[in-house]
Amino acid sequence: MVLRRNLPLLLVLLVLGGTAVSQRRHAPYPEWSDREFAPVIATQQTSDHLSPKDVDQSYRLPSETVPTHYAIRLHTPQLHTGGRAFSGAVDIFLDVIAPTRTITVHSRGLVVNWAALFARQDDGLLVEFGFPQHEWDSRTEHLTFLVGGELPLGSYVLALEYDGQLETNSDSGFFLKSYVNDEGVRRYVGTTQFESTNARMAFPCYDEPLLKATFTLSITHAAEFEAVSNMPIAERLALEGTSEGYVTTRFDTTPKMSTYLLAFGVSDFVAIQDGRQQVYARPNAIHEAVFALEAGVRILDALGEYTHVSYYEYMPKLSQMAIPNRGSGAMENWGLVKYGEPALLFNPARNTYRTRKGIAVVIAHEYAHQWFGNLVSPHWWSYIWLNEGFANLFGYIGADRAYPDERYWDLYAVENVQNAFGPDSSDTVRPMTQDATTPSAISGLFDSIAYDKAGSVLNMFRTVLGDDNFRAGLKVYFENRQLDGAVADDLYEGLQTAIDGKDVLPGGVTVKQLMDSWTTEPGYPVLTVRRNYDDGSAIVAQERFYAEKREPNANVWYIPYSFARASAPSFDDLSDFRWLSQKAERIEDTGATADEWLVFNKQQAGYYRVNYDAHNWLLIAKALQSDPSAIHRFNRAQLINDAFHLARVDRHDMALALDLLTYLAHETEYVPWAAANGVLNYFYDKLRGTAHYHDFIVYVDALLGPVFDGLGEFVPVPEDEPLLQKYLKQLVTTWACRLGYTECLRQTADALSTAVETNTAVHPDVQYVVYCYGVKGATDDQYRWLFDQMIKSGNEAERSLLIEVLGCSQDRDQLASLFTVAMGSTADLESLLAGERTRIISSIYSAGRFGVEAIIETLSSNRALAEEFVDRFGQGQLNSVVANVASRTNNEAELEQLEGFLAALGDLISEDTAASARRTVHTKNEWFTTYEGVRSTTFFTDFSK
């Protein structure tokens, strides 16, 4: 086959000569949250499946006392000028429920100056009980008060006074952030992040999710600032005398809730409001909060309607707060949800459709937590999936119900189900329910299993039980466990109640039996379908899917399955499921004739892969070539993802998977292309810079060309362009420019030139492809213009995108200048936010071989600069650079450059780091001698003839 595109001759010559062609591999940030150009297989989880006896339970608090209420008083005397010191007093109202001589709470980084214990009489009168001594265990972070005698059962108040420091090196506990206002003055923000074990950094407390209590909070702060918390302000009192210029803000008492959900902020922020919702942001960014407020109102209404439980039944208001320089995370504190600015602020003149989509989904995610996590909290962190799995799922459901025209639900499977499959195919992955007790181990539970897998499994059961039944079951769950903790069985009980007597499940089978097979065991199954084409029957069998091996597994999942056939493509009917509850069974009659395809797992509602006999795969491929719309777009994406990953573990032939993808020349839906993008990136990473690359781009050209031709002029963005068309357009144009399509490169270069000449940014929705590929041949003036756009921007999401595209340059001097900025050697350093310097470094080596070689040259040629790099960024960052250089080394010339790089760094890196880099390259080279490598490259060679 010959190339049908006008690929530049220089590109072909460079490929045949073994020289790298620039590539764009994006560092993760909100604009690319769908991982379009991330590695195919995500980093695998390495947590072993631990039994309860393997977990150190000494980190858990003793059970003789429980809290009922906290009265917290904080004083932040210099926060408004950047001072870190704060003082606090807390009265912990507690009940002694078993005889004890001690009271133990959590504390981290606090200095307790005074403690007193009072007995609380039935009439509320406090009787002094003494001044207990205390001791602190740095390992468990237990702060234990020694009472001196046995405490009788009853109610007490432990009164404490203490000092602390706001964090500046982490976004945990009570920490300090800042921004620069329009007058060029730095302003400070005191804010909190208590999940999962960080409330103890702001006040001594029972810092476990089940130990709920009510909270009354007062904060004394500079009068020029405002304070906000979970609850509305009860009063704001101006202080006099030596405290003149300060006020005390007191808030209403919260409902009963976990310590990790308490939140507060002290700043000069301003707010916009709609009804009982507010959005707080710095004054020079509040105009970018309009969409967040609109989305918040819509989404809360949608979720309240879905759950049949009104948020306002429990809380009087709901605020959102955008924290500068916090990254793109968010936290669901009850009544005060906090976000990094890129996750909440949207400027239609500066931010892309991806930012808007990301904000809608993350707001829905955090708002879902107001029910899943806040109203009902996990009994212990082992059940964190009861929080995060539901929030993962309802992030998309909530956003989709609030903005139905955007079709957010289309993105769920490719961004979550298929993402979970990567880590969950490891043989060391943990199950959904997994115990942990140390702070670091608890933090480790907030992973793809808790989010993506749990959400996918919950969606599977939502589908098979029926949405109405699922909603009814959740309502029972909320009613039974409101303002309390829950374990998995509580959820199962609610769902079971909703379906009893409705003939939803097979006789004698319970929700608990079904769901336990998915939540208590690691991994997921592959459903193998073997058809008998003579009598219309089929055998279905299950087996655990591993990414690196095949071996028997004893676990039997209860697998709900459905299927469509060519003569009855009932993909929209998800009301009827069969259950595979053993290793294998025979379907007597599929209803399919010998010449029609079968497709299982309609709309990929089930959390498992599906494999077929070779003939059925061929029937599917033929159908897709003839009319892709005959098979649901979700299943087209599933088929692509499954076919590739099944071939990678030799469950069928890789040529079959690659041949299947050729139908993409007729595919105009984004979701299948998103699945295919992962496959194409996998081979791009393997083949770039090798003798096989030319054959590969011939293959991609055949898939991509017709779709790219259909886009026409892609730089203009129609006002009514659908969201998923924007996704498709960016994916296709990015690949087209990457492969060197003349028309793609012309449009991007012309658009960048026009933008610079008119000093007007291109439309945000095409900024990435225009800037990244326009900058490859940019003049120094054009490059400086882009850099200035980044430096001047006050929008963090826009800054992140511009940093990424600056790394796309193919001019060594431009990249060297960018590296100098990252090192802080120019005045521009003051204009960079925390984390942006390392993001610049990442953008340089991630953008392709030009950037890799620029990094190698810069750090190899100047030993003092390499030493300064370690001093400024740390050893881990240099190790990361080495690892990333190695992962982008694909031929002998590049290997020689890597060896020179390692030699130049010398003792700045360890032998282990150097050896690991060499192993990476060796593994990449070995791939070409594996069956997969030979079969794949042979396919591409044959295809290109």
Rg over CA atoms, rounded to whole Å, is 29 Å
Which class of secondary structure composition applies to the elements?
Answer: alpha+beta
Name the poorly predicted regions: 1-48
Classify the helix fraction into a percent range: 25-40%
Mean pLDDT: 93
Q: Helical stretch count?
A: 28
Mind describing the biggest β-sheet?
8 strands, mixed
According to DSSP, the number of beta strands is 30
Order of strands, main sheet, comes to 5-4-8-2-1-11-14-13
What do you see in this structure?
This protein is an alpha+beta fold and 945 residues long. The chain has 28 helices and 30 strands. It has an eight-stranded mixed sheet, with no helix packed on it. The protein has a five-stranded mixed sheet with strand order 16-17-18-20-19, with helices on one face. The chain has a four-stranded mixed sheet with strand order 28-24-23-30. A hairpin with a 5-residue loop joins strand 9 and strand 10.
Features:
single chain, 945 residues, alpha+beta, five-stranded mixed β-sheet, 28 helices, globular, disordered N terminus
How are the SSEs ordered, and which strands pair?
Blueprint (H helix, E strand, L loop, with lengths): L8 H8 L48 E11 L9 E12 L3 E7 L4 E10 L5 E5 L2 E5 L4 E10 L2 E12 L7 E8 L5 E8 L20 E9 L3 E4 L3 E6 L7 E6 L12 E4 L2 E5 L2 E5 L8 H18 L10 E6 L6 E2 L4 E5 L12 H16 L7 E3 L6 H18 L9 H10 L17 H6 L4 H17 L1 H15 L2 E3 L1 H12 L11 H9 L5 E7 L6 E7 L14 E3 L1 E3 L12 E3 L3 E4 L10 E3 L8 E4 L1 H13 L6 H16 L5 H8 L8 H18 L5 H19 L11 H17 L2 H17 L8 H8 L5 H13 L3 H11 L5 H12 L12 H11 L2 H12 L2 H11 L1 H13 L4 H14 L5 H17 L3 H14 L1
Parallel strand pairs: 1-11, 17-18, 18-20, 21-22, 23-30
Antiparallel strand pairs: 1-2, 2-8, 3-7, 4-5, 4-8, 6-7, 9-10, 11-14, 12-15, 13-14, 16-17, 19-20, 23-24, 24-28, 25-27, 26-29
Helix pairs in contact: 2-3, 2-4, 3-4, 4-7, 5-7, 7-8, 8-9, 11-13, 12-13, 12-14, 14-16, 15-16, 15-28, 17-18, 18-20, 19-20, 20-22, 21-22, 21-23, 22-23, 22-25, 23-26, 24-25, 25-27
